[in-house]
């Protein structure tokens, strides 16, 4: 074997060794990188459906649960609260919820599966503030004699009725969002999953 052939053979071996070492280094770097792209257990739990037991919720009371890092309100409406929903269409920006986010089964006047329970995300659709409950009616509410009860966003004054529908002329562009949900039992609601997907 000539000197040139020995040098070529040595170069080939060096190139082969370098390629193998480079490939191993690339694989060693890629494995943790790819693993970092999968969601953590904490992240998976944050997006998981949440169960809410509404058995102790009295008529007229509201509870809050967290789903995907957002407050979800569950309001048990009284007959009087439900009666106000029929009288407000001319005052609302989207009374039929045509432009708002809700599952098809909640696209009704009560925006719910069961009229008694409103399940809505408690984040204003304007700039993401959290409205507060203003269930007292009339002058007692501080919102005028005609106030029928609902929600007020303290940041910019958007008001919502007891079906989370926004009043016309307010900064919020749409009604409060209704998350996917279903009933596991008469008094147990699963928020974040409805079986339609």
TrEMBL record:
CDD domains linked: Rieske_cytochrome_bc1
Rieske domain location: 111-190
Keyword Cell cycle: no
Swiss-Prot/TrEMBL keywords: 2Fe-2S, Cell membrane, Disulfide bond, Electron transport, Iron, Iron-sulfur, Membrane, Metal-binding, Translocase, Transmembrane, Transmembrane helix, Transport
Enzyme Commission numbers on file: 7.1.1.8
Gene Ontology cellular component list: plasma membrane
Coiled coil: none
Main location: membrane
Location in or out of the cell: Cell membrane
A Pfam short name: UCR_Fe-S_N
Reactions this protein catalyses: a quinol + 2 Fe(III)-[cytochrome c](out) = a quinone + 2 Fe(II)-[cytochrome c](out) + 2 H(+)(out)
UniProt membrane topology term: Single-pass membrane protein
SUPFAM superfamilies, sorted: ISP domain
Named cofactor requirement(s): [2Fe-2S] cluster
Highest taxon in the source lineage: Bacteria
GO molecular function, one term: metal ion binding
Enzyme category, top tier: translocase
Binding note for cofactor: Binds 1 [2Fe-2S] cluster per subunit.
Subunit structure comment from the entry: The main subunits of complex b-c1 are: cytochrome b, cytochrome c1 and the Rieske protein.
Similarity comment: family membership: Belongs to the Rieske iron-sulfur protein family.
Function, in words: Component of the ubiquinol-cytochrome c reductase complex (complex III or cytochrome b-c1 complex), which is a respiratory chain that generates an electrochemical potential coupled to ATP synthesis.
Miscellaneous section: The Rieske protein is a high potential 2Fe-2S protein.
PANTHER family, sorted: CYTOCHROME B-C1 COMPLEX SUBUNIT RIESKE, MITOCHONDRIAL (PTHR10134)
Protein name: Ubiquinol-cytochrome c reductase iron-sulfur subunit
Native organism: Denitromonas halophila
Gene name of the record: petA
